[in-house]
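User: Teach me something about this protein's shape.
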Amino acid sequence: MKKEQIKINEHKIDVYSLNTVVVGSGAAGFNAADRLYNFGQEDIAIVTEGINMGTSRNTGSDKQTYYKLTLGGKDKDSVFEMAETLFSGGCMDGDIALVEAALSARSFYHLVDIGVPFPHNRFGEYVGYKTDHDPRKRATSAGPLTSRYMTEKLEKEIKNKEIKIFDNYQVIGVLTDKEQEKAVGIITLNKNQAEDKNKRYTIFNTTNIVYATGGPAGIYDTSVYPGSQTGASGLAFEAGVKGKNLTEWQYGIASTKFRWNLSGTYQQVLPTYVSTDQDGNDKKEFLNQYFNEPGKMLDAVFLKGYQWPFDPRKVKDFGSSLIDILVYNEIVIKGRRVWLDYRKNPDYASENGDLEFNLLGEEAHQYLENSDALFGTPIERLSKMNQPAIDLYADNGIDLENEKLEIAVCAQHNNGGLEGNIWWESNLTHFFPVGEVNGSHGVYRPGGTALNSGQVGSTRAAQFIAARYQAQPLEIEDFKEEVLTQIEKKLSLGEKFANSINENSSSNVISIRKKLGERMSEAGAHIRSESKIESALAECKNELKELETNSNLASYRDLSLAFQNYDLLLAQLVYLTAFKDYIQNGGRSRGSYLVQDSEGQLPLTGLKEEFRFSLESGVFNQKIQRIKYKEDHFEFSWQDVRSIPEDNNWFENVWNKYLNDQVIK
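Assistant: First, the predicted structure itself:
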């Protein structure tokens, strides 16, 4: 890595030239750097907005899942069979499914070897359990904090290798060649020295970029993503990277004060759902108004543990996803607040406060019986089955034994994202989106595949870079000539933000963020309609156009938030446009969202018309929507999914190709 300096207008800017920069410090980013080093490419660095920020380190569930090939027990499994499971979720390319299956064991054992505490039996078998959309028992877990353990152990590997980390450097632009065909670097805001005009920005001149910035969490207000996770997808779109399957997200019930998924045992212990007015008064149980039998209500709540993401296919006949609609109805339509109360059993299914377990269906009853939990209150059952789930909230200032837990239906994961091939390289060459920012998933996916995909994708990117992209970056003058216009544009935006700083007035960058998030949660979350999306798009376009002049900052610390707002508005514009295109092409409800359809059916009589919907027929599952943003216009393509490759894996032929370096291409 070489450090130089260039002058652009009035700015003297440090430039670091190196082979590969990894943007992001989550599990995928750290793994990319670790793998690159192990594969022999040591001219690398990590650039991160904050080493302790992001989803990998700050999120989880009752039992956060890692999905991989079956590695224990008598159940039969194969790489191809796992690929078929991933592929069957719809809108997933078969070659990528095969890669994620093939490298799942390698990636998993790498984590085991560096100390992630996945459980095994005394024979060394890493036994598993079934997760959602999983026909086998491929899931495993290190507990509620699985991804945090992964991140911490990978970070230790990075520090042991003394790989340079640029902490508190926020990417504000992806730099390309003039034809916008090849990535050549990034420009960052140095948050450590934002007040110094000559140290405010730092540029990285690179041969390759591994982009591990996570999903664009900041575009939603009602979200279970940690507050520190915003993403940087808008900047990638601006650079010409295609979006893929942007319509596909996961939404589910989560707590809002402390952002955490309420899946698994949080639902299986059968808590009481209550709503209140905005002041916390007028407390009442509300599910009983909609379920004609208490047993059906209990079964729906129980199944939310297995079937946590909202799914329009699971609304009919009092299915588990009806719960999500009823929670949304209380909060958004009625303007109330919704809570889980673990201190008492639901009145509708209890006698003198004791739950009538005989009302439960066979699956729920058998589960609680096997868990020795056919007794007491929800909190007592939770203590018996999963005490760490209680401790987690206690560690974050919430005492489930003595207070209600406020909830909402929240954005949780983007199954779509940026385009990438089987080496995770995007249409913009030398640019590799890995982790959640990569749109490798389809409509439905087994729980825990995101963690596997992040490890597999970052490994594949590192393999390709180490084998094929070892060249030095551009010479500094050639680099400056290539990217000058792009840098000047970013500097102009930054200085307009900086010139608005007035320490004697209040900043509006947070209110801008709040407004754009509320707009997305209303128009682009799990309840969608073309009219609301069009209205939201108009607002988004206007706010993006006027952001430079409408932003008022109170300090240089606000520069980071102002640049984030620019990225988020860009991302929101592209995502909403993709949503609109899907609906206009005839797309209906699927995955984790409901599309309003005036000719469809209501989930229940009495609910408002915006809940009327019909299911997508399955035709769209065989096609992938791709979108490219270019100077205020969009290019769409709908392409058939690629099938799972069935190569002739005759060993001698594979060996020969491997020996002759014909595999990585």
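Now, about its shape. Residues 197 and 367 are 62 Å apart (CA to CA). The radius of gyration is 25 Å. If you'd like, I can walk through any region in more detail.
User: That's plenty for now, thanks!
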